[in-house]
Amino acid sequence: MRTLIRGGTVVNSGGPFPADVLVDGETIAAVAAPGLFTDADTVIDATGRYVLPGGIDAHTHMEMPFGGTSSSDTFATGTAAAAWGGTTTIIDFAVQAKGASLLATLDRWHEKAGGHCAVDYSFHMIVSDVNDTSLKEMESCVAAGVNSFKMFMAYPGVFYATDGEILRAMTKARETGAMVMMHAENGIAIDQLVAQALADGRTDPVHHSLTRPPELEGEATHRAIALAAVTGAPLYIVHLSSRHALDAVTAARDSGQNVFAETCPQYLFLSIEDMARPDFEGAKFVCSPPLRPADHQLDLWRGLRTNDLSVVSTDHCPFCFAGQKELGRGDFSRIPNGMPGVEHRMDLLHQGVVRGEISLSRWVEISATTPARMFGLYPRKGVVAPGSDADLVVYDPTATQVLSAATHHMNVDYSAYEGMELVGRVETVLSRGSVVVADGAFHGREGHGRFLDRDLCQYLR
Ligand SMILES: [Zn+2]
User: Contact at 8 Å (CB) between 195 and 166?
Assistant: First the structure.
């Protein structure tokens, strides 16, 4: 089965160029001068369109248990929504419960995702219980293709790790070549601010942000970087939201340390103003770290240009407003933390191109190529090149669309971007050579997606 994508502009991280893309089975057979190939079983006309490598969302939480409930997208619904938005690979988080084994946790997540994903998927491992057994098991996880371990300086009593535990896990990461991913917020101090706010009767959603000030993200980021420097482990700061944290990352990178960071669309497009919306609507925007005052957005866009921020992931962790976010009425600390977004990352970042914040090739780099290299998937993923998986997006850069819960495909009853008008939209999506989205319809299949056994980070010296 040969598919020819004809007449488009291929956009790789190295820049755009006119080319036809020939797909044979599940892989790209050729990227050739326009018109060189004419013979194929199927022809997709990409005239006036971009042809991109499928997006890679390196931070999602499908059906994740949190605060007595579960995120509302399953692996089936969440990966279908991802495909609609031009994302053809997700890396989700297996979550170790206190006392559980890492390997049993990994098995559990394979059961949850296996046979259900519409696009390819992989896992990071959340380590919430550092002990001799789990440290030893990190080696087995690496051998099983899961070589990135997320730890938390936030959420005392749940996922929180002490500095000593972080140091031990980083030492193991250094030995195995694995990456430590860090949720960097000072959870001990935050818990005190939360308790004070609730005692004072400050219970509205906006206080979720006010009790998690950017100084405490900056402090934790700096501390994580120091622990990484002492142990020699590579470090990846997840969902960086503030200039305070960005400053710490920038200084570490300037010094030559193996420190990397991602931000998320919500920190680039939304702000604390959204959390202050009346009638509890601010709960829709509760995630951690929280949305910041809008002036932080300028710094984050700058960080994306300078590569101090090298990846944009979504931290997709949807909870319905009805019945889930509402658990926190009268007490913001009980609002499930997380926002939907897996479907809109590529389109939202394209607005950065439209506005002149980032270049066309940088758009592809931060949403596909760098996540592939960061998490050991390149060149199988993240590039339009012969031999790579035929994960391809035909993108119409001039079409317009309005985001809305009425039309999105995520299993959640609101959109964080309701009514936002965007320029550009995904037209056709292929996952390993199969058309999964075309002509405004979903042609994918639950279970088409395969688990990706990942190599180590390709940025390390
Ligand atoms: Zn997350």
Answer: no
Q: pLDDT tens across 321-360, in order?
A: 999 999 999 999 999 999 999 999 999 999 999 999 999 9
CA of 35 to the centre of ligand 1 (A): 44
Ligand 1 centre to CA of 93 (Å) is: 8
Find the mean pLDDT for residues 406-411: 98
Distance 176 CA to ligand 1 centre (A): 23
pTM above 0.70, yes or no: yes
CA of 447 to the centre of ligand 1 (A): 24
Ligand 1 centre and the CA of 286: distance in Å? 13
Bridge partners (DSSP) listed for residue 56:
89
Distance 71 CA to ligand 1 centre (A): 11
For residue 249, give both structure tokens: 């990352």
Q: What is the pLDDT of residue 181?
A: 98
The Å distance, Cα 390 to ligand 1 centre, comes to 28
Contacts of 456 (CB under 8 A, 6+ apart): 142, 147, 177, 178, 179, 376
Cα 345 to ligand 1 centroid, rounded to whole Å = 15
Give yes or no for a contact between 228 and 259, defined as CB atoms under 8 angstroms apart: yes
Q: 351 near 326, Cβ under 8 Å? A: no
Helix (H) or strand (E) holding 9: strand 9-12
Q: Judge contact between 392 and 21, C-beta under 8 A.
A: yes
| Mean pLDDT over the full length of the chain | 97
Ligand 1 center to residue 291 CA distance, Å?
A: 14
Q: Which of 355, 373, 291, 323 is nearest to 89 (CA)?
A: 373
Dihedral Cα 335, 336, 339, 343, nearest 10 deg? -140
Cα gap 147→37, rounded to integer Å: 40
Write out the E strands in 226-276: 235-237, 259-263
Helix (H, G, I), strand (E, B) or coil at 351: helix
Burial of residue 191, with CB atoms counted within 10 A of its CB: 0-12 exposed, 13-18 middle, 19 or more buried: middle
Q: What's the distance, CA 158 to chain centroid?
A: 22
- By C-alpha distance, which of 302, 193, 179 is closest to 242? 302
323 CB neighbour count, 10 Å cutoff = 11
